[in-house]
Amino acid sequence: MRPDNLYLSDIIDACDAIARFLAEYDEQSYFLVDELRQSAVLQKLIVVGEAEQARVLLHQCLAEASEALGKDHFGVTCLAADLGWAYRALGRYSEAELYYRQAYEGRRNTQGEDHPTTLRVMSQLGNVLSLQGQHGEGERLAREAWARARTSL
Q1: Per-residue pLDDT tens for 18-70?
Q2: What is the SS3 assignment for the chain?
């Protein structure tokens, strides 16, 4: 067993505890935490070099969550950003861009232009644009995200 895999159980246990707490208040919150638990595990797969496996599973999670919660739901935007990350790890930058754009639009619509999570995805989108050779647009997005983050603190 890889040493990195030891931490997966900790991630799952923490997400389970959050899910139990939230389930007492709202059934939909439990669904969200379930999706985020899967997302946390899939992020770990990307870190340990299993990006293709994570990509396949994230596609499935994203489809199910989008249907149940809508494309702009925060949990759905988390999954879209994670899918962008998986594609980026695979060197498939144009596909990564599509999912980062989906996450950015959803977060902008629900969290607002200057919310930290919106700005984080905006910066990730800028990074993947730069990786595709679109340096001007990539730098512009990254600088705008940084400037907004500084003023919103």
Answers
A1: 555 555 555 555 455 555 555 666 666 666 677 787 788 788 878 888 888 88
A2: CCHHHHHHHHHHHHHHHHHHHHHCCCHHHHHHHHHHHHHHHHHHHHHCCCHHHHHHHHHHHHHHHHHHHCCCCHHHHHHHHHHHHHHHHCCCHHHHHHHHHHHHHHHHHHHCCCCHHHHHHHHHHHHHHHHCCCHHHHHHHHHHHHHHHHHHC
Sequence-ordered list of residues with C-beta below 8 angstroms from that of 134, at least 6 positions apart, any chain: none
Residue whose pair of structure tokens reads 């997400």 in the numeric block: 15
Predicted model pTM = 0.73
Taking the CA atoms of residue 133, residue 97, residue 42 and residue 75 in that order, the dihedral angle to the nearest 10 degrees is 150
